[in-house]
Amino acid sequence: MLQLVIPAFNEAARLPRTLRELTRYATANRATLGRIEAVVVDNASTDATASVARDADCAALPVRIVHCAEPGKGAAVRAGMAVTTADIVGFMDADGATRLDALDEGWRRMLLGADIAIGSRAVEGSDTAVRHSWLRERGARAYRSCTARLVPGVADTQCGFKLLRGDLAREVFAGLRTPGFSFDVELLARARHAGAVIHEFPVVWADVPGSTFDPVRHGAGAFLDLGRIAWQLRGSRTAPRTVPALAPVAGSAVVPPAAAGGEF
Predict the structure, then answer these.
(1) 204-224: b or e for each residue (b if 16 or more CB lie within 10 Å)?
(2) Lower CB count within 10 Å: N or C terminus of the chain?
(3) What is d(CA 79, CA 195) in angstroms, rounded to the nearest whole number?
(4) pLDDT number for residue 141
């Protein structure tokens, strides 16, 4: 079974389409991936997010609803991971920005020995459609330069699609301290320091209107969180691990323990 955590804050408008597409995908790929379960985390929404998630529950895609009162995407994903039990788990955005065929490649890499498989908009072969403002683009470049020091070798820490070994995910998320948008960086940095092997692969990604990230309101906090993460992880050491060689995949990147940062 594959369990996918979907953090959702006031996502009543965008979540239904994402869950419909995930239901179709789960039905078409059951023979390959087995049963898929969605864990929708209602992050203190004031709209009908929980209701639309409940309406999407079906045999093809069981939907479990978790309520998280602590604000922030990181807090929501942490709450969702805490209730998972599957050997392979993951998380994706409620807006469905990453095309679901990323699950095929992410699953393949997990089966070949990766501890974490992360979708990326920054490696060769990715296809992105972006409507970001100049302010957001400038902020993203500065952010990437900072994350490069914390998670060297990862070109895109912030793409909202990641698969992880279930035991590793539950262990690392239990100690995660970043409740906001920079939680991905802490997740990858802590996993790296634990010796995890990270595979980064290209995805098809489209910016979906309605993002809850505002560079003016959240940008400064995201940078401050990077400083806190660096301080918390000072002196950590990486425990090296090995992973079987992958069949060549155009535009992919394999990131071993040790070796560029995120995009909002």
Answers:
(1) bbeebeebbeebeebbeebee
(2) N
(3) 24
(4) 79
42/54 Cα distance (integer angstroms) = 11
Write down the residue that tokens 């087995």 correspond to.
34
Over the stretch 50-81, which tens digit does the pLDDT of each residue have? 999 999 999 999 999 999 999 999 999 999 99
Predicted local distance difference test score (pLDDT) of residue 256: 47
In the numeric block, which tokens belong to residue 146? 């900072």
pLDDT digits (tens, 9 = 90+) for 133-148: 655 677 677 888 889 8
* 40 sits in which H/E element: strand 36-42
Residue 114 and residue 243 in contact, taking contact as beta carbons nearer than 8 Å: yes
CA distance 50 to 64: 10
Query: Which single residue is written with the structure tokens 């060297």?
Result: 152
SS (H, E, C) 163-219: EEEHHHHHHHHHCCCCCCCCHHHHHHHHHHHCCCCEEEEECEEECCCCCCCCHHHHH
- CA dist., res. 35 & res. 179, Å (int): 29
Residues of the chain falling short of pLDDT 70: 130-136, 139, 210-220, 235-264
| Continuous segment of H or E residues that includes residue 46 | none
